[in-house]
Structure formats: C-alpha cells, structure tokens
Amino acid sequence: MLSTFRRIFSAEKQKTMPDCQAMSDSGLTINELPNEILSLIFTNISGEALCKQVILTCKKWKDIIDSSPFWIDKLLHDSRASPNLLKFLAQSDCLDPKHLYFKNPFVKNLIKNPCAENGYDFWDNRSLLSIIDLSPRESHDYYNKEYLKKHCRNSKCIQEQNGFKIEPDDYLKRDPYDSNGKPVRNYATTYFKCTKYQLIDLYDEGIDERMLKKLRPRIEIKDSYAPRHDCGSEYHLSVVLFDEKFNKIESVKFDKVFPQWSVPEWHEFKQDIENYADSLRYILFEHCGKDTQFWAGHYGIKLTNSSVRLIFD
Questions:
Q1: Alpha-carbon span 52 to 190, nearest angstrom
Q2: To the nearest whole number, what is the mean pLDDT of the chain?
Q3: Residue % of the chain over a pLDDT of 70
Q4: According to the model, what pLDDT value does residue 128 have?
Q5: Distance (Å, rounded) from C-alpha 1 to C-alpha 90?
Q6: Sign of the CA dihedral 147, 148, 154, 158?
Q7: Phi and psi (nearest 5°) for 303?
C-alpha cells in the first residue's frame, strides 16, 4: 500500500496522473483505503510537504490533513509534544494541534544560537537596557526587526565582534556541543563591557495573550558563565518582562565579580519567574561582562548555554 501511495504521489507531482483515483496494478485505488490508513501514511511525510503539496491532491486528502485528530497524531509521531502537554492544553481549551506542530514554544529554548552554533546570529551586540529608562515608545523603536535581519545574520564565520571572541580559536572545526550535549563553544569578553541581547516576542513564538492567561507557564531562565584563572572578571545578567507597549512588568538582575586567581570553572545561573502580569508579551534576555584588569585580548568572563523556556509542572 505504501508503494502504491508513492507511485500516486510521484505522478501527482509530475502532473502526469492528476486524478488521485488512479489505479494501482492490483486494481485498488488509494482512496479506497480507510481514512485511518491514509492518515497513518501521511504521518510519515514532513509537515511542510503535507501543507504545500499533499493537501492539494484531492478533497479527501485535504479533509484528512485539515483535521485536528491528524495533527495530534502527527505531533506524537514526530515527538513534538508529549501526551501530558496535549492533555493540559485541551483541558485549558488552548489546543490547536496544527498551529502547535509548526510553532510550539513549550518544547524548545526560546534563545536562538545560545552556544555560538551560528557565530553571532540572532544576538544584538548593543544594550536595550541602556534606554529602558526612556519612554516605552523609544524602547519600542530601538528594537527593530529589520536591523536584526541585516546585522545579526550570516555571521557564522566571524570570530570576533564588538569585543566578543568565540572560543576555542578553531571553533569552525569543532561542533558547538560535545558528545554528552554540553556546550564547547563560548563567547569570551575583553577589557570593556561586552553586551549582547535577544528580545523574545512570545506571540511570534506561538503563544498569545489568551494562552498566557489560561496556561500561566513558569519562565525558566538559565545562563552559564566562567572566569579565567589569571585575570579578574565580572558578569552581569538582566531579564526583563515587557507588555505589548514595552512597559516594564517584572525584572531579574544578577551580578558576579571574580577576583584574579579564581577557579576557572563554569557556573550556572538559574531562576524561575512566576505570577507575572497577564499583559506579558516580550522577554528581554541581556548579559554582559568584561575583565577587571584592562588587559588587551579576551581575558574577561565567558558566556554560553543561555536559555529561556516555558515550563509546565
């Protein structure tokens, strides 16, 4: 049956057999198969191909692919959602399986490129916090998606930028993570304060105001930082929650100074944010650091493995 489907689908793509009632060698048409069998076959096709190609074949296939039960099966088949999450969303009247398949903010790190997998992509090497005391309107203007697209993309081969340096020196030859899933690459800072941030738009990530009000996920913040042994350094982290108009809702701030001859080991900052206002839309993650002895080179704090996640207990 699967080989029959492949022949029919291949013919449809080539426009040589537009009728999905086309006969196989055995005389069985694919549409004589039960919907449950067709649905099972479709779960093995990528979501993008289903929505761009397969759905156009005929009305019967479109009805299957447009159904909520199909996308629930697809979510489970591709491990994009757990049964517990689906149950929780359904009980909260917030389950849209197809939308969840393509935009699921509950199973991923909302920080992109946390370990220099792609150079400096998605990181803005300015400081949004430097103007949060200004009007919300000016803060909104400062965050410009077109600027990010122009200046914060295609930087995979860039090793040094605005005071940061990606370590190790041969990072292009190394994977960002080791065999145990721990980060290998990091952003090392220099003698002046090096800052980078990401501003997460929860609506863009797939969770809207209604879902936030009903679900109230816990916001888990993590960041890893490490000093050198031979030079003192300092580390600063700020996480700020904003509403749609960039009014400040809540914030988390952490600072740490390491003297010279500190143990050069990784530390992890971790904090959860709960009971925030219903109006939450943006999460600002901004961290920075430098050395404390003004040495030329990159002897300041090292940063990696940043994480912002929405957690359900």
A1: 48
A2: 86
A3: 84
A4: 81
A5: 34
A6: positive
A7: -130, 140
| Residue 170 to residues 66, 165, 173, 174, 184, Cα–Cα distance (Å) | 48, 12, 6, 7, 11
pLDDT per residue as tens digits for the range 68-117: 999 999 999 999 988 988 998 898 888 999 999 998 898 799 999 999 99
Q: Is the pLDDT of residue 287 over 70?
A: yes
Q: Please state, in angstroms and rounded to a whole number, the distance separating the CA atoms of residues 164 and 289.
A: 10
Contact 232/257 with Cβ under 8 angstroms?
Answer: yes
- Strand pairing category for 280-291 and 233-243: antiparallel
CB atoms within 10 A of CB 99: 12
What pLDDT, in 10s, does the model give residues 113-170? 999 999 999 999 888 877 655 555 555 555 566 666 666 677 788 899 999 999 998 8
Whole-number Å distance between alpha carbons of 193 and 190 = 7
What is the distance between the alpha carbons of residues 185 and 179, in angstroms, rounded to a whole number?
13
Find the helix packing angle between 68-77 and 83-91, rounded to 10°: 150
Which residue type, as a one-letter code, is found at position 301?
A: I
Sheet holding 267-273, edge to edge: 160-161, 164-167, 186-188, 302-311, 218-226, 267-273
Please answer whether residues 184 and 174 qualify as being in contact, where contact means their C-beta atoms are separated by less than 8 angstroms: yes
pLDDT of res. 313: 65
Residue 49 has pLDDT above 60, yes or no: yes
Q: What is the pLDDT of residue 129?
A: 79
